[in-house]
Design a protein that fits this description.
The complex is a heterodimer of chains A (208) and B (197).
Chain A lengths: L27 H17 L3 H9 L3 H5 L3 H15 L5 H8 L31 E4 L18 E12 L1 H4 L7 E10 H5 L6 E8 L3 E3 L1
Antiparallel strand pairs in A: 1-2, 1-5, 2-3, 3-4
Chain B lengths: L12 H15 L7 H12 L2 H13 L1 H9 L1 H7 L10 E5 L4 E6 L8 H4 L4 H4 L1 H6 L4 H7 L9 E6 L5 E5 L11 H5 L4 H5 L5
Parallel strand pairs in B: 1-4, 2-3
Helix pairs in contact in B: 3-4, 4-5
Classes of the chains: A alpha+beta (208), B alpha/beta (197).
Chain lengths: 208, 197
Amino acid sequence: MDGIHDLGGMQGFGAVDHSPAEPPFPGRWEATARALMGVVAGAVDASGGEFRHSIERMDPGHYLTSSYYEHWLTGAATLAVEHGLVTHAELEARAGGRFPLSGPVLAPRVDDAGPDVGEPRFGPGDRVRVHDWHPAGHTRCPRYVRGKTGTVVRLDGNYSVPDVEAHGTVRRHEPTYSVRFAAADLWRDGQHGVSVHVDLWDSYLEPA
Amino acid sequence: MNEKGHHPAPLSPVEQRVAALEALLTERGLVPEGFIEEITRRYESEIGPLNGAKVVARAWADPEYRERLLTDGTAAIAELGFGGAEGDHMVVVENTPAVHNVIVCTLCSCYPWPVLGLPPSWYKDPPYRARMVREPRALLAEMGCPLPGDVEIRVWDSSAEVRYLVLPQRPPGTGGLSEGELAGLVTRDSMIGVARL
C-alpha cells in the first residue's frame, strides 16, 4: 500500500534529531511494547510481512506523531484484535480511553502463491526496471524506485516474498538482488557521485 | 518525580494502553513469566555497537579477516561469535578515500542488531529515512560528516533480507595500537556511515 511508512524521498521533515548514544529503551513501557509484539506475533504465527503491515496500516497522522514503540504497540494490538486474542472494546475498557488501531487490510487474502522462482533472471551488471505498480497490500518495493531503471550489483539468494506472506499462510520464494540507482535518475536534480541501492525481489523487476 | 511516600506518577495514555494489552494477554496465559525482563536484558546487555567495533578492529588488524569479512560478512562476523536475528545475512561495505557508504531503512527500521544493537531513535524517525536517499551529501554534512565533493556516496536501503555494516577507514596514526585499543576508536555512527573516524 502507498502508506505513510514509505518515506524515502519525502520532503519537509527538517533536521535529524541526532544523538551520539542512547539506551536501547527510553523507559519500561517501550521495552514492554517490544516484548508484547513478540508475544502476539508468536501467538498468531505472524510472518515478518504481516508484522510490518500491521504498522504500515496505521493512520498517517498517528504514525507521524507517535514514537517507534507506539508503532509496535499499535501493530501488536491490531494483530491481537484481528486474530481474536482480544477485542477492541476490551482494550479501550482496560486503557480507560481510546486505543487507536491500524486500518483494515486493503488487499485480498492470498491463497495461491504461484510457483517459486528458483534461478535468478538477472546477474550483476544487468539493467533492470522496477515495475511501476501500486499494490494494495504489503510490499517491500519502495515507491521512490518504481518505474526507475538501475543496475544489479549483487545477488543475495532466495527469500519468501513479503507481498505474499503478509496476506496468508502460503509462501513464494524468489531471488533477491541489490540494485544500484544513480541518485540523479531518481530525483532528476543533477546530483552526481551519489548512488542509492535498494534490495528487491525478482517479481518487482523487469529487464530494461 | 516520585519521592518516597508519594503516589507514583499517573500513567500517560500510551502507558495505559501498553498496560491494557499486557494485562489482557497475561490473563490469557500468553505472556511467559519474566518474558519482558528477559527481552530487556538481552537487548541491553548482549548486543550493541561494541560487537561491531570488535569486527571492525579485527578487519583493520588482520588483512585476511578483512577479505573474509568483505566476501562473506555473515560468516566472518560469526567467527567472533556474533549472529542471529537481523544479522543472518550480513553485507559489509568498505569506506575508502574515494567511496563513502551509509545505511538506511526507508520502509521501517531494519538494522544489524547483533553487531550494532537496537537502532537509535533518529535512525527510525521520518527525517533520516526520508532524506538519506534523496540528499545524502547535504544530510551527512548537516549531521557533522561533510565529505569532499569528489568522494562518491553509496547509500544502502535495507529493503529486503540483507543487513549492512559499514567498515570505516582506519584513522591515521594508529599503527601501534592493539586490536582492543582500535576497537575503542570505533563509534556506532561510523558503522552506520553518518560519521568518519
